[in-house]
Specification:
The protein is 45% helix and 19% strand. Strands 1, 2, 3, 4, 7 and 8 form a 6-stranded antiparallel sheet that branches. It has a two-stranded antiparallel ribbon with strand order 5-6. The protein is built from 5 helices and 8 strands. The protein is elongated and about 90 Å long. The protein has one domain.
Length: 174
């Protein structure tokens, strides 16, 4: 290979690195802005946690890094709230009349005592919880996964705090 071609390749690689740095800076700014918007939209939200990793096995397919944005895997304000298990019942089905009979406010409190206590420990109402989970899932799905991996690491459990700081620990996902 002659010197001219090697010089062009070298210059192209330098430019690629410069462009990648610019792109990373833009994505970091977008992440920070979106984080601020999310916390501003939900004043009761102090922190949220998610996992991100490259699977060890994928049925023979390529194992690709990903951010786990499913609501069941998100922790709000340090409390794990599984949407599959938090279900606030407000009525019962009456098979005789074939309609739902609404609960009184007292009955709602009684029937949902454990779930409501869990939500209270996370400092959110049920309505806030549903909205926050959806917003966090959307937030995580819109992030650049290369940046997330570079910023927080692979095989990581990440917590983002209202003040913009974060904490990342190793995550075992066998």
């Amino acid at each position: 290979m002659n010197q001219s071609i090697q010089d062009k390749k070298y210059a192209a690689n330098l430019r690629k690195q410069e462009l990648q740095k610019e792109l990373d800076a833009i994505n970091q700014e977008i992440f920070a802005d979106m984080s601020k918007e999310l916390f501003a939209k939900f004043p009761s939200l102090d922190s949220f946690t998610w996992t991100q990793y490259t699977p060890y096995f994928n049925d023979g397919d390529e194992c690709i890094f990903g951010v786990d944005e499913e609501p069941r895997d998100v922790v709000i304000n340090g409390i794990e709230l599984d949407p599959d298990n938090i279900w606030i019942r407000t009525s019962d089905w009456d098979s005789a009349t074939k309609q739902y009979i609404p609960y009184s406010p007292e009955k709602i409190q009684e029937v949902n005592k454990n779930d409501l206590q869990l939500l209270a420990s996370a400092k959110v109402t049920h309505e806030e919880y549903v909205a926050i989970i959806g917003a966090i899932s959307e937030f995580l799905s819109e992030q650049d996964e290369d940046l997330m991996k570079e910023t927080f690491g692979d095989h990581a459990i990440v917590t983002l705090f209202k003040d913009g700081t974060s904490d990342s620990d190793g995550y075992d996902h066998d």
